[in-house]
Amino acid sequence: MPQGKLIVFSAPSGSGKTTIVRHLLAQKELNLEFSVSATSREKRGTEVDAKDYYFLSSDAFKQHIKSDDFLEWEEVYRDNFYGTLKSELERIWALGKHVIFDIDVSGGLRIKRKFPEQTLAIFVKPPSIDELKIRLKKRQTETQDKINMRVAKASAELATAPLFDCIIENDVLETAQKEAYDKVTEFIN
Fold it and tell me: Which of 4, 38, 39, 166 would suit a FRET pair with 104, their CA atoms being 20 to 30 Å apart?
């Protein structure tokens, strides 16, 4: 099966990685397809199964782990799993496309380790922790406790930034999007 490139975007929650990934997916000349992650968390808002995530029960997720169905997986928060099914890569490569990921830091680094030459790992950095808090509150999708958990986790995630191929600071969204486009274009060509 022909294999395309793997483009990994990782960042603390609220950094803007999903917005940047959506922008890149809209650039048809890049020939990108979104890797839909699996998760055991509940749906938020208008999320759609098999489009935003493959929503699995905790037990189903654990069964996939036992069956070695994941390229990478992580228990991000207690009983809250995220992972990339191997079948997702096969699905996207069968379309003749490059895979773009919007995943947590640990998962992103695991993919980079498994496919070092084939992967561009990009870390999206928020301008500051204070700005991160503001962005998470603006989402209005999570409780204050969840926001506090995400902010606490962000410090550890920020410490991993140097392990990525490049760091894009998302202070001005349009600038970050252009920088991401340029990096991805250079990598896939």
Answer: 4
Number of domains in the chain: 1
76-117: pLDDT as tens digits: 778 889 999 999 999 999 999 999 999 989 999 999 999 999
Q: Under 8 Å CB-to-CB from 49, ≥6 apart: which residues? A: 43, 55
Residues in the chain: 189
Instruction: Give tens-digit pLDDT for 10-31.
Output: 999 889 999 999 999 999 999 9
The DSSP letter of residue 167 is E
Q: What average pLDDT score do residues 121-132 get? A: 91
C-alpha 14/C-alpha 130 separation (Å) is 11
Domain for residue 118, yes or no?
A: yes
Which residues neighbour 129 within 8 Å (Cβ) at sequence distance 6 or greater? 151, 154, 155
CATH number at residue 29: 3.40.50.300
Whole-prediction pTM:
0.88
Vertex 102: Cα angle to 109 and 92 (nearest 5): 95
Residue 1 lies in a domain: no
